[in-house]
Specification:
CATH class of the largest domain: Alpha Beta
Number of domains: 2
CATH superfamily of the largest domain: Spore Coat Polysaccharide Biosynthesis Protein SpsA, Chain A
Distance between the termini: 43 Å
CATH architecture of the largest domain: Alpha-Beta Complex
Shape: globular
Low-confidence stretches: none
Largest sheet: 9 strands, mixed
Helix content: 40-55%
Radius of gyration: 20 Å
CATH topology of the largest domain: Spore Coat Polysaccharide Biosynthesis Protein SpsA, Chain A
Mean pLDDT: 94
Order of helices and strands: EHEHEHEEHEHEEHHEHHHH
Number of helices: 11
């Protein structure tokens, strides 16, 4: 099996060395050929300088920041081999990754064990608890099963992402959404097209064991804001349970803000308390959730609202 490893990056100086060290240290099976393509998506930090120290990495520069979808598409179009392994710069792979891909012998295949740390930060605690509830019983996957088949029936309930995903170049390119923007819902839209348009099951397997390095500091809030935009890009374009809930909440909040602002404040406080009680698993979860929920929730809401306005006015 020959593999083109495609790594999109925009201002990734924080983790790019860790990522490239790990990818460069992969154990390569006899008869296997690999290439490493780094798609520099208009970075303005030291990303390219750091990556240039790796002679085994081919760097492809985009003239400006065009978003992860376009960066991955560029990588796939320039790939030498038919098998594409997508790796994000916050992913640290282990050296047996390629061996396990061959052992499992199925594509499309994504990593099922991210080794995320619940108590690394207050932000990590909140996101872990949200995923635990939202993706139950599939998250964390090691508590469910080695194999999780993502199908049309469980697509909304299954944890998924393109941070470590191997598939054919042909399937990837024809699964790219029609709308490609910096805030396009790349992960969800691509995976949805794979499952629904191409009628293909995705295998999420815990033997694909990686380490995800979460964001820290102010980077967290800008990322959550961006996730709000990608959420709106995908879920607010058609009628579904998320769009119904979103617009219902938006209209009720707007009405209360205009006519009963104090009631809106009480509603928000009550929602934070009830959500905390719903999410927490341990007493030490309570404070991080109550502190981060309104901050991250607001960042997510602003991002989704910005994208919604662009969708409505087609900007």
């Amino acid at each position: 099996m020959d593999i083109s490893i495609v790594i999109p990056v925009y201002n990734g100086e924080e983790t790019i060395k860790l990522c490239l060290d790990a990818v460069s240290g992969l154990t390569i099976q006899e008869g296997m050929n690999i290439e490493i393509l780094l798609i520099n998506d208009g970075s303005t930090d030291r990303t390219k300088e750091i990556a240039s120290a790796y002679p085994n990495v081919k760097i492809i520069d985009l003239e400006k920041n065009m978003g992860r979808v376009q960066a991955r598409k560029t990588g796939a179009e320039n790939a030498k081999y038919e098998n594409i392994l997508l790796i994000d710069t916050r992913i640290e792979v282990f050296n047996d990754l390629l061996q396990n891909i061959q052992k499992i012998g199925y594509q499309p295949l994504m990593a099922g064990s991210l080794n995320d740390e619940k108590y690394k930060s207050e932000y990590d605690t909140l996101l872990y608890l949200i995923r635990r509830k939202f993706y139950h019983p599939y998250y964390p996957q090691f508590k469910y099963a080695k194999e999780l088949w993502i199908t049309q029936d469980n697509f909304l309930k299954a944890p998924k992402g393109t941070g470590c995903l191997i598939l054919s170049r042909e399937l990837f390119l024809k699964s790219i959404p029609d709308i490609i923007e910096k805030d396009s819902s790349d992960d969800t839209a691509i995976l949805k097209n794979i499952v629904f348009q191409n009628d293909t099951k995705i295998l999420r397997h815990t033997d694909l064991n990686i380490k995800y390095h979460s964001r820290e500091g102010n980077d967290v809030y800008s990322w959550i804001n961006h996730r709000g935009k990608t959420f709106a890009d995908h879920y607010l374009r058609f009628v579904n349970k998320f769009s119904i809930l979103y617009f219902s909440t938006l209209f009720i909040s707007a009405y209360l803000f205009l006519f009963y602002p104090f009631r809106l404040l009480m509603l928000i406080v009550s929602a934070i308390i009830l959500t905390t009680l719903y999410l927490f698993e341990d007493h030490k979860d309570i404070f991080p959730v109550m502190k981060q929920l309104p901050i991250l929730g607001f960042a997510f809401f602003i991002g989704s609202l910005e994208k919604l306005i662009k969708i409505i006015f087609k900007k």
